[in-house]
Amino acid sequence: MQPEVTELNDEERALYLKLQKKVGWKRTGTEVFESFFPILPFVPSEQAIVRLIDGVWHVLMWHRKDPHYEGYHMVGGYILRGESDEEWLTRCIKKEVNLTLKAFWHIRDFNTRPETGWVPNHQMARFFVCEVEGEPSVGTWFPLDKIPDDTLGHHKKYADCLRAYFMRMDTMREKGIRHDYCNKAPEWKWLVNSLDTLDGQVSLIPFDSLDEAVKCMRANRSAFLVDDQGLQIL
Predict the structure, then answer these.
(1) What percentage of the chain carries pLDDT values higher than 70?
(2) Does residue 10 lie within any of the structural domains?
């Protein structure tokens, strides 16, 4: 277990600081890099590479198996010192699936912590929608509502948030958005705001599943759906 407070004596501290000056910011080596996992939060990008196929939004996912993760996931990678968002995404997309970044939009951030059981360390993940050119060297295009069952836990949540992003865009274009920041769902959940027409009271119903929340909302014409950022989806 990593101690909460550094326990180095004076001699160990001097040696540590001397050795740390030899650690490269660009290429640390896996063991050195991962030694910081229990100590410092890391910043990965999660890149939803999307494509319309037969009128349905698909996301590119590929399967990985390593000591930390096993299952399908979206493209992503840790930021390197000095990179802009565009440089960061361009490098990761080229490295992982050999595609060229065409355009990107930042959707939101995720504060993903070890207690969720999904990640080996604390991560502040930045989530982007990306358009690309070319055909991927690895991976498969999946409809957003039909991703593989063995998708990594946090990437299942990312996929739902991606679906909600496109739902919100449709809501905005067709009906307009009027309920941003009225209420906010708990973290990783969805909140249906339902007005009881008999007594005029508003019910706030949280759901773990986006599909269940959408079903509940559509059963009540006066209801609307928000995410854990307080943004209206439907």
Answers:
(1) 97
(2) no
